Amino acid sequence: MPIKLYGSPVLREKAAPVDEITDELLDLIVGMRESLYYHQGVGLAANQIGVARQLFLADEGKGLKAFINPRIIETDGESSSEEGCLSLPEIYVDITRAQTLLLEYLDEKGEIRRLEADGLLARIIQHEYDHLKGVLISDRAGFLASRMIRGKLKRLRKRVRESL
Predict the structure, then answer these.
(1) DSSP-derived pairing of the beta strands 100-106 and 65-76
(2) CA geometry: angle at 106 spanning 63 and 23, to 5°?
(3) How many CA atoms lie within 13 A of 11 on its CB side?
(4) Which of 30, 21, 18, 34 lies closest to 71 in space, CA to CA?
(5) Quick check: is 116 catalytic?
(6) I need a labelling partner for 54 at 20 to 30 A (CA). Which of 18, 22, 72, 152 fits?
(7) Average pLDDT value for residue range 21-35
(8) Statement: residue 164 has pLDDT above 70
(9) Of 90, 116, 128, 162, which one is the catalytic site residue?
(10) pLDDT, tens digit, for every residue of 49-66?
């Protein structure tokens, strides 16, 4: 599945909840998994492949997890680290996020789950959760970083417009 790039309108959409776990949704998860690994990412939101549904995948190196209709219940601490994004290739910015979080979500069987995450997994979850709200790392970049990546963003947006 091709990854939507910065400038694609779907990346700014707020994702709609998933109403039920269907074979189509499970097939979407399989396709997203293949795209995630093909592009060597650690997380992928459905928006990034053109589907504005509340679904994302994460793999911090301990196995793939699918999160459907996720909701961050609480967060604690702060940590800053450089982040990249498959939808913003070659752009990396320092982002401050919560160090730990508690997430409630549906798994692939439709069961409600809770997950306490910290470190890299917490960062991936927050990054992908932002995608579901139409928020990108460029929106979270500080003033100086925003100025530094402005040219790259403009070129990406132009590439997307030309492909439409």
Answers:
(1) antiparallel
(2) 85
(3) 20
(4) 18
(5) no
(6) 152
(7) 96
(8) no
(9) 128
(10) 999 999 999 999 999 999
